[in-house]
């Protein structure tokens, strides 16, 4: 039981290891490397933790990073030093299209050459270099030029797979109604009550009987897209799409665009010139409401991103805790705790999809609201 | 990670915890009064909890 000699130091070290949790999508690896280095320095001056403990922690951080960050190749796991997985196409635009396989990068070790330009992969970002792969600038922030990166990464591939899955699932469900006389058959029967629920409990109460049909396709798509991607993120394959702020930004932008493009005069009236309040209040409310137009989709983005990303980090840190406690009691307790947390994460996957859909429906409803006559006091 | 950041993050979590706890408590009371409305109350409780959690996460995100 080496660990229990200095429990406070262990807790502080784990808290420092949690630092990458709330960083931006692609820089946690840099933060993690530097914090494990500072942890080594401060610990050596005071106590004497074993080197293998810090090595285990560094290895855990690397695994977490691989699971949670987007990657240019799909590596499933490492077996005796060999990466098992497949490489994905890299598509760059740098005065001309460059198209090659990510195996040329050899997991970041070699320099890839394409049409006379040399590229190197550093912390999952592609930089343009010369033939020997020099990176100018500081250690973790190279100042080389970066080409426009349009590659099919892990996340993009997952989105395509989920899109195909949803397409085949729902078209076969729709066709089964015709073949079976108005009743669905097959595995897709599971989704009929869910679709009815979205229509009756999310779309109609929020948007109203008159206009809900216009928005149903988007609401259904968003619900199943987010739900399936969240569930995919819980598998050990290391695909984390909704925990990537760029993806949730895209979804929130689509909600924002739909809300504002299909809004009627009442919506804009309520923002700029709120009816029914005295004139000084109208002038004060206008900038606040305008800010609200931006903040509401922004909160959609942050809510989904933070819930899913933090859930993944916590879950994998707990699994990593199993390897830090090399004892029967500690490891089995961590295992049971991580099992409980993954059950909660399955609930969170559905709940976040539901919340995103419901709030989108709420915003659409406020965009197409009819004018209510003021009631007499 | 500086001390004010840690303290700030802790306060945010306390706030979110208290908020969601109160909602849960009111939901329990409401279900005890009217067990047949359990479905609606649960739905409303989860929505409110998710919104409060959204603020909590946004604050944690801003702290870091």
UniProtKB/TrEMBL annotation, chain B:
Residues 8-60 form the V-ATPase proteolipid subunit C-like domain. It is a multi-pass membrane protein. The chain crosses the membrane at residues 6-23, 44-63. The record marks 53 as: Reversibly protonated during proton transport. Belongs to the ATPase C chain family. Key component of the F(0) channel; it plays a direct role in translocation across the membrane. A homomeric c-ring of between 10-14 subunits forms the central stalk rotor element with the F(1) delta and epsilon subunits. F(1)F(0) ATP synthase produces ATP from ADP in the presence of a proton or sodium gradient. F-type ATPases consist of two structural domains, F(1) containing the extramembraneous catalytic core and F(0) containing the membrane proton channel, linked together by a central stalk and a peripheral stalk. During catalysis, ATP synthesis in the catalytic domain of F(1) is coupled via a rotary mechanism of the central stalk subunits to proton translocation. This is ATP synthase subunit c. The gene is atpE.
């Amino acid at each position: 039981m080496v660990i229990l000699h200095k429990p406070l130091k262990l807790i502080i070290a784990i808290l420092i290891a949690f630092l990458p949790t709330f960083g931006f999508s692609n820089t946690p690896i840099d933060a993690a490397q530097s914090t494990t280095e500072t942890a080594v320095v401060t610990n050596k001056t005071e106590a004497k933790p074993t080197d293998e403990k810090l090595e285990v922690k560094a290895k855990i951080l690397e695994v977490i990073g691989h699971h949670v960050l987007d990657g240019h190749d799909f590596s499933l796991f490492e077996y005796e030093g060999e990466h098992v997985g497949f490489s994905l196409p890299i598509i760059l635009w740098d005065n001309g299209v460059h198209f090659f396989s990510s195996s040329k990068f050899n997991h970041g070790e070699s320099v890839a050459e394409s049409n006379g330009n040399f590229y190197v992969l550093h912390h999952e970002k592609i930089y343009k270099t010369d033939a020997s792969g020099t990176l100018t600038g500081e250690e973790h922030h190279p100042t080389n030029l970066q080409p426009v990166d349009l590659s099919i990464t892990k996340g993009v591939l997952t989105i395509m797979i989920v899109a195909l899955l949803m397409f085949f699932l729902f078209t076969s469900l729709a066709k089964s109604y015709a073949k079976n006389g108005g009743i669905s058959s097959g595995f897709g029967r599971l989704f009929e009550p869910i679709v009815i629920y979205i229509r009756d409990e999310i779309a109609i109460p929020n948007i109203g009987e008159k206009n809900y049909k216009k928005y149903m396709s988007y609401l259904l798509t968003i619900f199943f897209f987010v739900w399936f991607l969240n569930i995919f993120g819980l598998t050990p394959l290391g695909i984390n799409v909704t925990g990537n702020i760029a993806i949730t930004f895209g979804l929130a932008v689509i909600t924002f665009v739909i809300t504002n493009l299909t809004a009627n005069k009442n919506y804009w009236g309520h923002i700029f010139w709120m009816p029914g309040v005295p004139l000084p209040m109208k002038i004060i409310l206008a900038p606040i409401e305008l800010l609200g137009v931006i903040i509401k989709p922004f909160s959609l983005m942050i809510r989904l991103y933070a819930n899913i990303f933090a859930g993944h980090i916590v879950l994998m840190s707990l699994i990593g805790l199993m390897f830090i406690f090399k004892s029967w009691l500690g490891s089995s307790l961590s295992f049971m705790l991580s099992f409980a947390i993954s059950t909660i994460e399955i609930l969170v996957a559905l709940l976040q999809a539901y919340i995103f859909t419901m709030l989108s429906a709420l915003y659409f409803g406020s965009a197409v609201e009819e004018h209510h006559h003021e009631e007499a006091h | 990670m500086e001390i004010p950041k840690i303290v700030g993050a802790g306060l945010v979590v306390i706030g979110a915890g208290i908020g969601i706890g109160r909602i849960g408590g009111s939901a329990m009371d409401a279900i005890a009064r009217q067990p047949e409305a359990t479905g609606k109350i649960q739905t409303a409780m989860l929505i409110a909890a998710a919104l409060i959690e959204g603020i909590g996460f946004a604050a944690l995100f801003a702290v870091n």
